[in-house]
Amino acid sequence: MTISLNAFLFVSGLLFAIGFFGVLFRRNTLVIYMCLELMLNAVNLALVAFSRYHNSMDGNLFVFFIIAVAAAEVAVGLAIIVALYRKRQTVMVEELAELRN
Amino acid sequence: MADFLFYLFSALTVLSALLVTVSRNAVNGAMFMIMSFVGMAALFLLLEAYFLAALQILVYAGAVMVLFLFIIMLLDADKGRSVRPDRLTTFAAGIGALLLVLGLAYITFGESASPSTPLPEITEMPQNASADDIPFTTASRSFGYGLFTKYMLPFQVTGFLLLIAMVGVIVLSKKIDASGEESTKPRIAKS
Question: Which of A14, B29, B45, B181 is the most exposed place for a label (fewest CB within 10 A)?
């Protein structure tokens, strides 16, 4: 394969930028959350590419940890969103602007 | 062939990621997200991280996205009017993302970019490998070796974190009644 490390890193950067754009652009908390996952995945791709091109297992193990932590984070985050929805009947960020209720 | 697959799957991943951010309907967004994760798993396969590709499909495209879809459909997140973000937010988000892409392109392909190294040969997992420097192998055995030697403490902390997350979700999903006390009664008994 003649694909260089830089190409993989560029794809990873593109994905990170798209996730970043989504977090800023969207108003739906659930979609913002999915965009966060996208950014985590971009980092995963960069780590795996570094790991492969530098002939070390460390990057792969980091990705393993990231996947485990992301799974826990999704469960807690979605529970928070459901709890918010129960209290305020909305998932749109501009209607969830104040902390006091 | 591998080059063509790289372009194919990175295009799939990036395009479906873009569609996640712009699709009006959150359910459609979740579907594109699954496509993006599958493309990412294919990229992991091209990088010969087979175990991670399997994990990506099982955990991300499977478990996490099922959870997302379930919550999106449960909350019916798209009902009512679709809120259009104002022009300024869109402009700022676009400029920010564009700057990020340009900076990354400069770092990865610009004049100061590091020279691309050839893909190293995959070695066999050595029998008496040192725990500090585990070479890259395709075997999931090296995952186990790394997890139980160099990363033993983080591995256990991750397990504990999953337990804490589970407890946290249970606490969060308890129904709080008007007096602010957590109700332990089942919800059916109230009606």
Answer: B181
Quick check: helix, strand or coil at residue A28? strand
Return the higher-pLDDT residue of A85 and B116.
A85
Note which residues in 28-87 of chain A have CB less than 8 A from chain B: 28, 30-31, 33-35, 37-38, 41, 44-45, 48-49, 51-58, 60-61, 63-65, 67-76, 78-83, 85-86
Enumerate long-range contacts of B134-142, CB under 8 Å, 24 or more apart: B134/A56, B134/A57, B134/A58, B135/A55, B135/A56, B135/A57, B136/A51, B136/A52, B136/A54, B136/A55, B136/A56, B136/A57, B136/A60, B137/A57, B138/B48, B138/B49, B138/B50, B140/B50, B140/B51, B142/A57
Mean pLDDT confidence for B130-139: 77
Its pTM stands at: 0.87
The per-residue pLDDT for range B48-62, each reduced to its tens digit, is 999 999 999 999 999
Name which of A17, A71, A91 is nearest B75 (Cβ-Cβ): A91
CA distance B38 to B55: 11
Q: How is residue A81 written in tokens?
A: 């969103």
Query: What are A28's strand-pairing partners?
Result: A92
